[in-house]
Amino acid sequence: MSAASDETHGEYLRIRVAAMVPNKSTTFDLYILINGKFICYLKSGDSLSQDKIDRLKSAKTDVFHIKEEDKQEFKKYVHDRVTDSSLSSSEKAVILKESSYALIEELYEHPDVEKALNDSKEIITNFVEFMDQESDAISNLIGLSSHDFYTYYHPLDVRI
User: Fold this and answer.
1) What is the rounded distance in angstroms from the CA atom of residue 77 to the CA atom of residue 26?
2) Number of separate domains in the chain
3) What is the CATH number of the domain that holds 78?
4) 10: three-class secondary structure by DSSP
5) Range of the domain at 13
6) What's the pTM?
7) pLDDT in tens, 41-61
Protein backbone atom coordinates (compact mmCIF):
# COMPACT_ATOMS: atom_id res chain seq x y z
CA MET A 1 0.00 0.00 0.00
CA SER A 2 1.76 3.10 -1.13
CA ALA A 3 1.85 5.97 1.32
CA ALA A 4 1.19 9.63 0.73
CA SER A 5 1.34 12.23 3.43
CA ASP A 6 -0.48 15.36 4.40
CA GLU A 7 1.16 17.55 7.01
CA THR A 8 -2.14 17.92 8.86
CA HIS A 9 -3.29 14.30 8.63
CA GLY A 10 -0.19 12.08 8.56
CA GLU A 11 0.37 9.07 6.29
CA TYR A 12 -2.23 7.65 3.91
CA LEU A 13 -2.31 4.40 1.93
CA ARG A 14 -3.90 3.89 -1.48
CA ILE A 15 -6.58 1.24 -1.88
CA ARG A 16 -8.58 0.55 -5.01
CA VAL A 17 -12.26 1.43 -5.19
CA ALA A 18 -12.95 -2.01 -6.67
CA ALA A 19 -11.71 -3.63 -3.43
CA MET A 20 -14.79 -2.24 -1.68
CA VAL A 21 -17.93 -4.36 -1.45
CA PRO A 22 -21.24 -2.56 -1.99
CA ASN A 23 -23.50 -2.23 1.04
CA LYS A 24 -20.93 -3.66 3.48
CA SER A 25 -19.92 -1.29 6.25
CA THR A 26 -16.28 -0.39 6.81
CA THR A 27 -14.33 -0.13 10.04
CA PHE A 28 -12.16 2.68 8.67
CA ASP A 29 -12.66 6.05 7.02
CA LEU A 30 -12.18 6.38 3.26
CA TYR A 31 -10.57 9.50 1.83
CA ILE A 32 -10.26 10.94 -1.64
CA LEU A 33 -7.45 13.23 -2.71
CA ILE A 34 -8.66 16.54 -4.11
CA ASN A 35 -6.24 19.35 -4.94
CA GLY A 36 -3.57 17.84 -2.69
CA LYS A 37 -5.91 17.49 0.31
CA PHE A 38 -7.34 14.30 1.77
CA ILE A 39 -11.10 14.68 2.11
CA CYS A 40 -13.14 12.15 4.10
CA TYR A 41 -15.53 10.49 1.64
CA LEU A 42 -16.95 7.75 3.88
CA LYS A 43 -16.93 7.43 7.66
CA SER A 44 -16.19 4.21 9.51
CA GLY A 45 -19.39 2.23 9.97
CA ASP A 46 -20.93 3.48 6.73
CA SER A 47 -21.11 1.60 3.44
CA LEU A 48 -20.93 2.41 -0.25
CA SER A 49 -23.84 1.67 -2.56
CA GLN A 50 -23.18 -0.01 -5.89
CA ASP A 51 -24.35 3.22 -7.53
CA LYS A 52 -21.67 5.25 -5.70
CA ILE A 53 -18.97 2.76 -6.67
CA ASP A 54 -20.11 2.87 -10.30
CA ARG A 55 -20.15 6.69 -10.32
CA LEU A 56 -16.63 6.81 -8.86
CA LYS A 57 -15.37 4.42 -11.53
CA SER A 58 -17.08 6.36 -14.33
CA ALA A 59 -15.50 9.57 -12.99
CA LYS A 60 -12.08 7.84 -13.29
CA THR A 61 -11.71 7.78 -9.51
CA ASP A 62 -10.19 4.37 -8.99
CA VAL A 63 -8.52 4.81 -5.61
CA PHE A 64 -9.42 5.73 -2.08
CA HIS A 65 -6.95 6.46 0.68
CA ILE A 66 -6.99 5.21 4.23
CA LYS A 67 -4.92 6.37 7.16
CA GLU A 68 -1.78 4.33 7.80
CA GLU A 69 -3.14 3.54 11.27
CA ASP A 70 -6.18 1.83 9.66
CA LYS A 71 -4.14 -0.63 7.59
CA GLN A 72 -4.96 -3.54 9.93
CA GLU A 73 -8.66 -2.67 9.79
CA PHE A 74 -8.50 -2.76 5.98
CA LYS A 75 -6.78 -6.16 6.06
CA LYS A 76 -9.50 -7.42 8.41
CA TYR A 77 -12.14 -6.01 6.05
CA VAL A 78 -10.59 -7.96 3.14
CA HIS A 79 -10.40 -11.14 5.23
CA ASP A 80 -14.02 -10.77 6.37
CA ARG A 81 -15.21 -10.28 2.79
CA VAL A 82 -13.22 -13.24 1.47
CA THR A 83 -14.73 -15.49 4.13
CA ASP A 84 -18.25 -14.06 3.67
CA SER A 85 -20.49 -16.92 2.51
CA SER A 86 -22.95 -14.47 0.92
CA LEU A 87 -20.37 -13.44 -1.70
CA SER A 88 -19.69 -15.50 -4.81
CA SER A 89 -16.29 -16.92 -5.64
CA SER A 90 -15.89 -14.38 -8.45
CA GLU A 91 -16.75 -11.46 -6.11
CA LYS A 92 -14.16 -12.72 -3.63
CA ALA A 93 -11.58 -13.03 -6.40
CA VAL A 94 -12.16 -9.38 -7.38
CA ILE A 95 -11.70 -8.26 -3.77
CA LEU A 96 -8.45 -10.21 -3.42
CA LYS A 97 -7.11 -9.03 -6.75
CA GLU A 98 -7.93 -5.38 -6.09
CA SER A 99 -6.58 -5.43 -2.54
CA SER A 100 -3.40 -7.13 -3.77
CA TYR A 101 -2.58 -4.08 -5.89
CA ALA A 102 -2.02 -2.20 -2.66
CA LEU A 103 0.24 -5.04 -1.50
CA ILE A 104 2.27 -4.91 -4.71
CA GLU A 105 2.63 -1.13 -4.45
CA GLU A 106 3.82 -1.46 -0.88
CA LEU A 107 6.39 -4.11 -1.81
CA TYR A 108 7.56 -1.97 -4.72
CA GLU A 109 7.80 1.31 -2.81
CA HIS A 110 8.78 0.23 0.69
CA PRO A 111 12.52 0.45 1.31
CA ASP A 112 12.37 -2.31 3.94
CA VAL A 113 11.22 -5.30 1.87
CA GLU A 114 11.30 -7.67 4.84
CA LYS A 115 8.92 -5.44 6.82
CA ALA A 116 6.65 -5.01 3.79
CA LEU A 117 6.51 -8.80 3.34
CA ASN A 118 5.74 -9.34 7.01
CA ASP A 119 3.00 -6.70 6.84
CA SER A 120 1.59 -8.45 3.77
CA LYS A 121 1.36 -11.96 5.23
CA GLU A 122 -2.32 -11.55 6.06
CA ILE A 123 -3.39 -10.77 2.50
CA ILE A 124 -1.13 -13.52 1.14
CA THR A 125 -2.71 -15.95 3.62
CA ASN A 126 -6.15 -14.84 2.39
CA PHE A 127 -5.08 -15.69 -1.17
CA VAL A 128 -3.88 -19.17 -0.20
CA GLU A 129 -6.97 -19.93 1.90
CA PHE A 130 -9.25 -18.68 -0.87
CA MET A 131 -7.60 -20.96 -3.42
CA ASP A 132 -7.82 -23.93 -1.02
CA GLN A 133 -11.49 -23.39 -0.13
CA GLU A 134 -13.01 -22.29 -3.44
CA SER A 135 -12.89 -24.88 -6.22
CA ASP A 136 -13.08 -22.30 -9.02
CA ALA A 137 -10.85 -19.73 -7.30
CA ILE A 138 -7.81 -20.19 -9.50
CA SER A 139 -9.79 -19.83 -12.71
CA ASN A 140 -11.44 -16.67 -11.34
CA LEU A 141 -8.08 -15.16 -10.41
CA ILE A 142 -6.48 -16.14 -13.72
CA GLY A 143 -9.40 -14.64 -15.60
CA LEU A 144 -9.05 -11.37 -13.70
CA SER A 145 -5.28 -11.12 -13.99
CA SER A 146 -5.28 -11.89 -17.70
CA HIS A 147 -7.23 -8.69 -18.29
CA ASP A 148 -4.62 -6.66 -16.50
CA PHE A 149 -1.53 -8.86 -16.70
CA TYR A 150 1.05 -6.16 -17.39
CA THR A 151 -0.21 -3.82 -14.67
CA TYR A 152 -0.47 -6.67 -12.18
CA TYR A 153 2.98 -8.19 -12.67
CA HIS A 154 5.18 -5.37 -13.92
CA PRO A 155 5.81 -3.83 -10.45
CA LEU A 156 6.94 -7.23 -9.18
CA ASP A 157 9.32 -7.70 -12.11
CA VAL A 158 10.79 -4.23 -11.62
CA ARG A 159 11.24 -4.74 -7.88
CA ILE A 160 12.95 -8.12 -8.32
Assistant:
1) 7
2) 1
3) 1.10.3210.10
4) strand
5) 3-159
6) 0.71
7) 999 999 999 999 999 988 888
